[in-house]
Write a structure and sequence with these properties.
single chain; alpha+beta; two-stranded antiparallel sheet; 11 strands
Length: about 400
């Protein structure tokens, strides 16, 4: 007789495993999330690979709500399993899409150190860097119970203790993403726990505008047309009315780009575009055309269609004004050199809301007529092409743009 001593596997979980082994049956529909997570851990420990893969996929596909409500429990458990990369990545990617509610919650302070490390090293953590720094300090204090809550009463020994706790995490902070005022107000008080080489970089950035080694986090954008970096580093600068080569710092506003329309998914036609992109919402449109690698696009601070309740003639439409709009072109999806921006010249005709077009920047300076992209110069926008052109649209994406 062989006796297995598995005190971490509950009788309920073991009963599910025994039934699966002898009958091949597995019904998780009525099981609570805790049991399913426990089954995942047990199947990994017992080397039941087929069961492990099924349970991992089941959690991701069928129990997303439960995962969201129990991120800390799930993260701490799955990060102890080397074979659970799929669920680890799913959890981290879900958090990175909207991290603010999670990273500012009290439960987040209960995360294990390996989870915190994996979270902070991600480039796509879409929240202001000062919030990440504040979380790290709070988390570090939570892991160091001997620290007094009032920092004004800390001594050198207290700072040394916190430094040991946070030593591996501080180099993951993108200090270039923190404004000078926040560096002085929120970071400098903890300079005793920051490595000397990193502290020197921060001070040079703060007082001399010399950029630190670690770059800004790149906010991941769900585009099949263009790389996220081009939106984050170039188009965002254009939105802020800056030169394209200016490096962004913590003083700059952050933007969230939410995909609201994709032609290959929703249909490339006027009706589909208007249904998905209705309303006075700041929006970015990207267009891929046939016969060329060139990428076209435009930004409208006032949206594209149904901007008002005005009654208008379906052939003439109605114009809306904006001083922030622009159109642009890239030579290809990775181009940073041969780019053209056409800023608005005639503010009164920034957007034409008209039935015959999905979108229309300034009387066809850049317009969509079902599957055709028209580029015509009417001196409403600066030119992005030397001559008028009509292209066939192969893909089109629209993102709502929100300042964080």
């Amino acid at each position: 007789m062989i006796i297995f001593n598995k005190p971490n596997i509950t009788p309920a979980i073991f009963d599910i495993i025994i039934k699966y082994i002898y009958t091949g049956e597995l019904d998780l529909t009525k099981q609570p999330g805790e049991n399913i997570l426990g089954l995942l851990i047990a199947s990994d420990e017992l080397l039941l690979e087929e069961l492990f893969e099924y349970v991992q996929n089941y959690l991701i596909e069928k129990r997303t709500s439960w995962i969201y409500q129990n991120f800390v429990l799930v993260l701490n458990d799955v990060f102890r399993l080397d074979s659970c990369k799929k669920l680890q990545n799913y959890c981290l990617e879900s958090i990175c899409k909207d991290p603010l509610p999670f990273i500012t919650s009290k439960s987040c302070l209960l995360l294990d150190d390996n989870v915190v490390f994996s979270l902070l090293k991600r480039d796509d953590l879409q929240v202001r860097e000062i919030i990440i720094w504040n979380f790290l300090i709070e988390w570090g204090i939570e892991q160091t119970p001997d620290l007094r809550s009032d920092r004004n009463n800390w001594n050198n020994e207290n700072y040394e203790t916190l430094e040991k706790t946070l030593n591996q995490f501080i180099p993951l902070i993108r200090f270039v993403g923190i404004s000078h005022e926040e560096l002085i107000d929120k970071v400098q008080p903890y300079k005793a726990i920051i490595p000397n080489n990193l502290l020197k970089e921060i001070e040079e950035f703060c007082y001399n505008n010399i950029l630190p080694t670690l770059p800004l986090r790149t906010r991941k954008i769900e585009s099949n047309i263009i790389k996220s970096e081009l939106i984050n580093l170039i188009i965002v600068n254009w939105i802020d009315k800056k030169d394209i080569m200016i490096t962004r710092t913590g003083n700059d506003p952050l933007y969230k780009f939410n995909l609201i329309y994709r032609g290959s998914r929703d249909g490339i036609n006027n009706k589909s575009f208007k249904n998905k992109c209705n309303g006075r919402v700041a929006s970015l449109v990207l267009i891929k055309v046939s016969g060329s690698n060139r990428i076209f696009g435009g930004y409208s601070s006032i949206g594209f269609s149904a901007l008002g309740n005005n009654l208008w003639n379906k052939y003439d439409g109605i114009f809306y004004d904006s001083s922030d709009n622009f159109i642009f072109s890239f030579e290809n999806s990775e181009d940073i050199h041969n780019i053209k921006i056409g800023r608005i010249i005639n503010n009164d005709k920034a957007i034409q809301d008209i039935e015959t077009c999905g979108f229309n920047f300034g009387w066809s300076s850049l317009s969509m007529i079902n599957t055709n992209l028209n580029i015509v110069n009417h001196d409403i926008y600066e030119r992005i092409l030397p001559t008028e052109k009509i292209f066939y649209i192969t893909e089109l994406e629209t993102f709502s743009v929100t300042k964080l």
